[in-house]
Design a protein that fits this description.
296 residues, alpha+beta, 18% strand, five-stranded antiparallel beta sheet, elongated, SH3 type barrels, Helix Hairpins, 9 helices, three-stranded antiparallel beta sheet
Length: 296
C-alpha cells in the first residue's frame, strides 16, 4: 500500500513537475531515487532491529543457538533482498529484464563459482545434519578450535591461543569432523614410563592413588592402570581415567604433574633414552694413524 501511494497512476510529486521535458524527467527520476534510498535505509534498520529482537527472544527461551543464529541471519538477508527488488520496480527499472539478466549471469557464475556453491551446499548440510553446534570444540582437516559462528559459506573457529580460523563449509561437509564436545564425559589417556627394576604393583598403586585423590576424576568407572608394554629402556603403564568434558585439560595436566611428583617421592626412576658407545681400540689406533699420515 505504501508503494502504491508513492508509485500510483499519478504520483503526487508529478503535479509539480513537467515530465514532458528532459529536465522534468531527470528531476522525477532523481526524486524517486532519493525516496528509494530513504525507504531502503529505514527498511534495513527495521529489519535489523526485528531480527535482533527475535534472536534475543529465542536465546532467552534457550532455543538451539545454531538454528537461531543461522535462521535470523538468513531471514535478514531474504527480507533485504525483497526490499531491494520492490524499490527497483518503484524507481522504474523493469524487473523482468533484470530477472533475465540475473538468470543469464547465474549460469556463468555457477560455473565460475563451483567452489562457492559447494560451500553453500555444505553450509545447508551442516545446518540440517548438525554434526556440531556453536560452542563445540572440533577438529577437522588439520584445524581445530571452538565453533564461534556458522554461516552459509564459512564456519568460524577460535583456537585456544585466540586465533580465528574460517573453514569453508564444503571442506567441513566432506571431511572427518571430530567433535570433542559432543559427549558430556571424556577419557583422559596417559602413558607413564618407569625404569626396569621398578616394583610394578607399587607403581600401579601410586598412580591409582593420584587418580583417586583428584576430585575431578570419576570414581565410577574407576581409573584403569595396567602395565601395557616393556619397551627398550622402560616399562610403559597405560592410565585411563574419566572426567567431565569441560575438565579434560585440567585433569590431564594435573595427573601428569602429580604422577611425576608421586613417583619421585617414592624413589621410582623415570628413565630417559641412553646410547652406549663401545670403541674398538684397534679401530681407534687405525684412525689415529690415518689422521697422522694425512696431516704430514
Amino acid at each position: 500500500m505504501f508503494f502504491n501511494l508513492l508509485a500510483g497512476d499519478r504520483p503526487w510529486y508529478e503535479d509539480f513537475l513537467d515530465t514532458s521535458t528532459t529536465l522534468g524527467r531527470i528531476t522525477m527520476v532523481a526524486i524517486k531515487v532519493i525516496i528509494a534510498i530513504v525507504i531502503l535505509l529505514i527498511a534495513f534498520a527495521i529489519i535489523n532491529k526485528v531480527c535482533k529482537v527475535i534472536y534475543n527472544r529465542l536465546e532467552k527461551k534457550h532455543a538451539d543457538a545454531t538454528l537461531s543464529k543461522v535462521g535470523t541471519s538468513t531471514a535478514r538477508i531474504a527480507l533485504k533482498l525483497l526490499v531491494v527488488v520492490c524499490l527497483v520496480g518503484f524507481v522504474g527499472i523493469e524487473t523482468a529484464s533484470i530477472s533475465a539478466l540475473i538468470a543469464a549471469l547465474g549460469v556463468g557464475f555457477s560455473m565460475a563459482l563451483q567452489g562457492t556453491l559447494s560451500n553453500f551446499a555444505g553450509g545447508v548440510i551442516i545446518i540440517v545434519m548438525r554434526p556440531f553446534k556453536l560452542g563445540d570444540y572440533i577438529v577437522t582437516n588439520g584445524q581445530e578450535g571452538t565453533v564461534e559462528d556458522i554461516k552459509l559459506f564459512y564456519t568460524t573457529l577460535v583456537t585456544p591461543d585466540n586465533r580465528e580460523i574460517s573453514v569453508p563449509n564444503g571442506t567441513l561437509a566432506n571431511n572427518v569432523i571430530v567433535n570433542n564436545s559432543a559427549k558430556d564425559t571424556r577419557r583422559v589417556d596417559l602413558v607413564v614410563q618407569v625404569a626396569y627394576g621398578s616394583d610394578v604393583d607399587a607403581v600401579k598403586q601410586i598412580i591409582s592413588q593420584v587418580c583417586l585423590e583428584n576430585q575431578l576424576v570419576f570414581k565410577n568407572p574407576a581409573p584403569f592402570i595396567e602395565l601395557a608394554e616393556m619397551n627398550e629402556s622402560s616399562l610403559d603403564f597405560t592410565v585411563r581415567s574419566w572426567c567431565n568434558s569441560g575438565d579434560y585439560w585440567t585433569v590431564k595436566f594435573a595427573l601428569i604433574d602429580n604422577v611425576k611428583k608421586a613417583l619421585d617421592a617414592n624413589g621410582i626412576e623415570i628413565p630417559f633414552k641412553q646410547i652406549d658407545v663401545h670403541i674398538n681400540p684397534e679401530q681407534l689406533k687405525l684412525a689415529q694413524t690415518v689422521e697422522e699420515s694425512v696431516s704430514e
